[in-house]
């Protein structure tokens, strides 16, 4: 049975998780990008005050989609904002049965670069201005887990980050036949 792969992209705010995921999806034909943020965006027009249920709904929807992809499509997956532990907890049997291996990457960024990227965004929404020091920023934000390959995106271009991920997972750059659709659809 052919080895299938899941690439998990985690990291700090503004470290480039979505950009990296989209770039990977564009050059990995036959892979699907499952983005929990797209699921959350469906609820944005409602301006919900309690975001906990929204977070839970997007995680559950992500798992349902992953389960269907693993069981029925058996294609490789790119997913962000989750952990290997979480995926294994809920999909462990399916991963073994369908021969999936998970690779996890933690995208790190220094405080100054994070602030700069947040300002450059079309809609700065991360509230990074509330952090006065790098120490405050580091304490409050995501940290790598054991097994994550950490990549400092403040020191590497997006092309370098993508190349490093491709090397780690043993994939070659290709071209998705619908690469121009990826940002809109995924």
Describe the protein.
The protein is α/β, with parallel strands linked by helices and 186 residues long. Helices cover 46% and strands 16% of the residues. It is built from 8 helices and 5 strands. α1 crosses α7 and α3 runs parallel beside α4.
**How would you classify the helix and strand content by structural class?**
alpha/beta
Number of DSSP-assigned strands = 5
Q: Count of helical segments?
A: 8
Oligomer: single chain
Sequence stretches where pLDDT stays below 50 over 5 or more residues: none
Q: Please tell me what the overall shape is.
A: globular
Q: What level of helicity do the residues show?
A: 40-55%
First and last CA, distance = 28 Å
- Main sheet summary: 5 strands, parallel
Indicate the radius of gyration in whole angstroms.
17 Å
Question: What structural keywords apply?
Answer:
5-stranded parallel beta sheet; 186 residues; 5 strands; alpha/beta
Question: What is the fold's blueprint, element by element?
Answer:
Elements: E1 4-11, H1 17-27, E2 31-34, H2 36-41, H3 52-73, E3 76-80, H4 84-97, E4 100-108, H5 111-120, H6 134-140, E5 149-152, H7 158-169, H8 182-185
Parallel strand pairs: 1-3, 1-4, 2-3, 4-5
Helix pairs in contact: 1-7, 3-4
In short:
The chain is an alpha/beta fold and 186 residues long. The protein has helices spanning 17-27, 36-41, 52-73, 84-97, 111-120, 134-140, 158-169, 182-185, and strands spanning 4-11, 31-34, 76-80, 100-108, 149-152.
